[in-house]
Design brief:
Layout lengths: L19 E12 L2 E12 L3 E5 L6 H8 L7 E6 L2 E2 L4 H7 L1 E3 L12 H7 L9 H6 L2 H21 L14 H13 L5 E5 L7 H16 L3 E5 L3 H7 L2 E6 L2 E6 L1 H5 L2 H8 L9 H50 L9
Parallel strand pairs: 3-8, 3-9, 6-7, 7-8
Antiparallel strand pairs: 1-2, 1-4, 4-5, 9-10
GO molecular function, one term: L-phenylalanine transmembrane transporter activity
Organism: Streptomyces naganishii JCM 4654
Protein name: ABC transporter ATP-binding protein
Length: about 325
Amino acid sequence: MTTETTTKDTAPGASVPGERVLDARGVTMRFGGLTAVRGVDLTVNSGEIVGLIGPNGAGKTTFFNCLTGLYVPTEGEVRYKGNVLPPKSFKVTAAGIARTFQNIRLFANMTVLENVLVGRHTRTKEGFWSAVLRGPGFHRAEAASRARAMELLEFVGLDSKAEHLARNLPYGEQRKLEIARALASEPGLLLLDEPTAGMNPQETRATEELVFAIRDMGIAVLVIEHDMRFIFNLCDRVAVLVQGEKLIEGDSATVQGDERVVAAYLGEPFEGAPGAAEAAEVAEAEATAAEADATASKADATAAGATTADAEAATADADADTTTDAAPGKENDR
């Protein structure tokens, strides 16, 4: 799992070695009666790459949204370097957490360089009047931002395409641009949501090298991915979410060897599976309802049978009365 990667500088937002960067405790997210994430605990330390995996619909992206302020958790708290994060995404970015998205979200009609400059806004100190008057301070800040943006484009290998429109980049390079924009905010923790989705093996390998290089800059990384080879080659620790709950957390060998993880991905039930108790309650309720319906149907059938028997008896009595009332000998009259 080791890859030789060297970098010249440490990132401005890099954390102190060994420092706990992210501490999520009991994070729960409910949407009405649906619990998408239930009581998830997760930590990320400085210099670590941590993976988050699970079947589709396990709650991984919802958990990311809780970490980055797009959702306010129903229960639990999220701390970054010991401080509780505010429930606003732009404040979370300013605090030091940046992210990419499962679906690429670039400014398609802006240039590659302009997209990265957008990521610099949280670190730019110039205000409204400075931008209007465009004094010396504004020009110095603008030049510094452009220089830093070009450094990041060189870092991801896009410096030669700085003036290209983002929409004209190949898919893999758009992914790199999104990472460069996230790095422009000088994060101490970078969250990557399926960074290799849709990539070929060569692009996946290049992304793996890029993530190692980001880690070597002192930036902790938390990554969601469905490519198991990518995740297990890359990550120091891996956590598995199943139906919104954390099933297991450990190194790659521990997670790969756990039968529950295999069963969860194959959709097979296993003892103690998240949601098993709720499923049992639903099954019991359905069985009780079915039994009640069967009893009611039987009672209705019995009642219907009794009614039919009464009707037949009444008809027989009526026929008997008619025969008795007929005059003697009349039945032979013609």
